[in-house]
Amino acid sequence: MIEPKKLRSAGDFPNKSAVEYATIRVETSHRLVPSNLQNPHYRDEDIVAGLYATPTGRLSYKTLYLDSVELAERFVAHLHQAFQRRPYANEYSLKVEVITTTQKVTATKGRAKHSAAVIETLLGDAS
Prior knowledge:
This protein is α+β, with helices and mostly antiparallel strands. It has helices at 69-83, 104-126, and strands at 19-29, 47-53, 59-60, 92-101.
């Protein structure tokens, strides 16, 4: 297996507090979003673009922080399989994005925690 190339961390940029992370943004119709995530200000046909996948494969408004694009792409493949059993099975899109932030502590801790959880989910899926 090829070792994934880690994204840049604090100190790798001219701005020493900048950190890069990969995330997976989920877009789907508001009517298909789970009821606990629905917003009364949206119409049913509106597209909700501010959703992310959690390390366990659920939808959330909380950002997912990952160490590498390769890990994000492997997780997207897993999510495509998991989402086939959900109400939004045929009406969603997943986008891998690389984002740079100056929230150094949040992004650094999130990358370590979320990447480990995603790897555990992928390994659990493989067995």
